[in-house]
């Protein structure tokens, strides 16, 4: 088990969540507000907006999903 600079223990398993969040969900200004792994733009016809918890519920990604 490693410890980050602020003293919060992070296991290798937790690190996978962070990398997944960083690559697939977090937007970057240098990429024109897109994620490193781009995703298609959803239209209102694609369904309602749902919250998808990430990093144990610390962050959420919002997507349109059919009901």
Number of spatially distinct domains: 1
Unreliable stretches: none
Q: What is the helical fraction, as a range of percent? A: 10-25%
User: What's the SSE pattern?
Assistant: EEHEE
The major pleated sheet works out as: 2 strands, antiparallel
Portion of residues in beta strands equals 25-35%
**Estimated radius of gyration:** 15 Å
From the helix content, strand content and strand pairing, which structural class follows?
alpha+beta
Number of H/I helices: 1
Provide the residue-averaged pLDDT.
Answer: 75
Could you say which overall geometry the principal axes of the C-alpha atoms support? flat
Strand order of the largest sheet: 1-2
Give a count of the beta strands, DSSP E runs of length 2 or more: 4
Description:
The protein contains 1 helix and 4 strands; from the N terminus they run E-E-H-E-E. It has 67 residues and is α+β, with helices and mostly antiparallel strands. The protein has one domain (2-65). Strands 1-2 form a two-stranded antiparallel sheet. Strands 3-4 form a two-stranded antiparallel sheet. Strand 1 and strand 2 form a beta hairpin. The chain is flat, with a radius of gyration of 15 Å. The termini are far apart.
Could you outline the blueprint of secondary structure elements for this entry?
Layout: E1 2-3, E2 9-10, H1 12-24, E3 48-54, E4 59-65
Antiparallel strand pairs: 1-2, 3-4
